[in-house]
Fold these 3 entries.
Entry 1:
Amino acid sequence: MKTAPRLSDILEQYSALFCDVWGVIRDGHALLPDAISALQQARMAGRGVVLVSNSPRPSADLAQQLAYMGAPDDAWDAIVTSGDATRFALAERAPGPFLKIGPAGRDDQLYDGLGLEFVSAEAAHAIVCTGPSGEFGWEPEDYRGMFERMVARDLELVCANPDIVVQVGDELVWCAGALARLYRELGGTSIISGKPHKPIYELGYAALARSGWSEPRDSVLAIGDGPETDIAGARRMGIDSLFIGDGILGSEISGAGIGAAEDALAAYGVAADWYAPHLIW
């Protein structure tokens, strides 16, 4: 891994960017102006930019949310989300019935128009999870007993957000990926379409093509702060990655330099091509 203090230092090597959202261009509370500016400059330099987010919401909803936060309309060409990719998996399993796990009402746009049926854990034929919920608990371990019973019934869990945690200001909050991981550890099957898996990247390449991009696939640079999602996904897809240190691993490596970043990634069994504390131009 090499240090890339500024995106402009390495951009000439790449034709397009797949950029994460939480931990890279926003910290959970607010947008990060320097990161937004870096994406704007990349587009001005003729590079395609697609936000690739593990948000369980459809991309149109995330775009609306970012606009509400003050995001400009010229910092990216398109947005694709885990929610977009997950809708295909849910449509294949419709109408279910599903046990729905997630914050009440927050991610319901995910289900619009799919004709899904939601029932109790006892009546469900599958599970869809957008994150922990107050109804069942906020910690992964709160789900162990219920998941053990559902694994025994051989039910699939469709995970709409593969992130294990997400940065919200100075805090790390559990995501659906943590519940899917527990489900797998108990012997269950989880269906994941977001990073680090292929479906969301295929949506990203399709979005680039719609914008007129026609360069080799391996000329895309992935930017993110998640070892198990952004960095692992880039490696799986055969593209380079820029690891942003002041994201979900910020408490471990902030100010400690590239060596600490390499050690932190190695603990997850992954390696990035480039490292920067923040995304700046």
Entry 2:
Amino acid sequence: MAINAYSLAKDGAKQLSTNFKVREFKCKDGSDPIFIDSELVGLLQKIRTHFGKEVNINSGFRTAGWNAKQKNSAKYSQHLYGKAADIWIAGVSVDTLAAYVETLMPNKGGIGRYYTDNFVHVDVRATKSRWVG
């Protein structure tokens, strides 16, 4: 797939898929541009369609400066490249969500389970990585 650059100011309301807009992936520091991998959007849309509920994005794209301020963030986090999102779905457990994502990416991608903060990290890296944060 492809990593695309969008302007929050110009493209924030642009639909990337049936249920996701550019602004949902913005860095929490409010910076522009926003980088988003189209494969990540496709993955999130499959999750949304499967559960039939809103997929909430806690963190999508991150600038290097913002990423450095996050607790336990990886220096070369997939968020820096627009390839990751930290997500949660109301009424769906971390384990249920992570298990479904595993069916979509059994041999690749990152899946991190964060029980304390109740979210799942998903990313579309080429290699397989699994962890509990």
Entry 3:
Amino acid sequence: MIRVVLADDQSVVRAGFRVILELAGDIEVVGECADGPTAVRLARRLAPDVVCMDVRMPGGDGLAATREITSGDTHAPAVLVVTTFDLDEYVFGALEAGASGFVLKDTEPDDLVDAVRRLARGQGLVDQAVTHRVIAEFARRRPVRPAADAAHQLTAREMDIVRLLAQGMSNAEIARELVIETSTVKSHLGRAMAKIGVRDRLQTVVWAYQNGMVPQRPA
């Protein structure tokens, strides 16, 4: 069973999400709360696989809670930010805080279930409505810091795979580009993620752009 904590200040939203998720059969909602600090405490006490986190909540916002939940521990729960807002500031704030996924509250029930499953498997997800804008904005931004020391531990092949992933390629597309097996891509990517200290593909993309691993495209 995939264990989930729900954090949203609206009880009716939490109730709806609980019904949708638990009807899936392989998901159990083990806790819920209405503010960020309580979400942090529940994440630590209940050790869920995924925390569904609202952005705006009284008593502590979801971005601060996300940062606290995900900081410094690759075994921490994955955070799926679920919000009514698709403004860039919330998208980038959530991803930079360590969230593994971002969906809007009006997403279809099946898509919400799929998002939770993907995060539980160590994959990342951004709502299709904002995916291209997110990648384009990361591509536009200049690196905010020099490449981390961890980058120097990556092999040449691992660096190639991280760069291609950050450009939006799937494992199969990376395999074709590098003329290797898809299973080899997965193995190299898994080792790269362990070295740079991220838990999923989406945070790998964030890390790659933040650390200048992807060449700036000419205007």
